[in-house]
Amino acid sequence: MLPTTTxxxxxxxxxxxxxxxxxxVGLFDLTGGEFRSDVPLPFWAFVWAGGQALARHxxxxxxxxxxxxVRDVATGSGVAAIAAARCGAAEVEASxxxxxxxxxxxxxxxxxxxxxxxxxxxxxxxxxxxxxxxxTVAPAMTSLLLAARKRGATVLVGDPGRGYFPxxxxxxxxxxxxxxxxxxxxxxxxxxxxxxxxxxxxxL
Length: 204
Prior knowledge:
two-stranded antiparallel sheet, Rossmann fold
């Protein structure tokens, strides 16, 4: 059963609206407090701090993606992908291992008057918001993003200080104080960085 959502403005980027959970609940509350490895958690029903920071940064600096091919990895609600599309990206891919997240991203894109793709070849910009949240996910994400950087893509990551972020591979571009649901993050705001992946030859 899918969570009940309503169309709401994004706290840090109110130019955008997303279908989000319409009551103060945590991630596991939406699954009855249970976790099943064969059913992805509904990350897409929330707008996470990293995605919000990326969206805000793109909306303030549309030249980063205007006319370029963009892939949003682990898109979740699609907030960063939608921001890229609003900024005039040539094509934007919403990528996620959870088909429900991809569906949500497309639904949210339609609510914002933009179109996302399921696949973009040779992306010039790769976005990733809040992807370093666990010791199992982080290494796979690091490998994926490094491969994109080695192919010449600009890699931008939004991260609010998750414990598994490989900071040595990135340089900080800017920071935002991002409003978040206290029931989700145990805080009302998170300082969230937008980071650019270094050139492979410049890794520390």
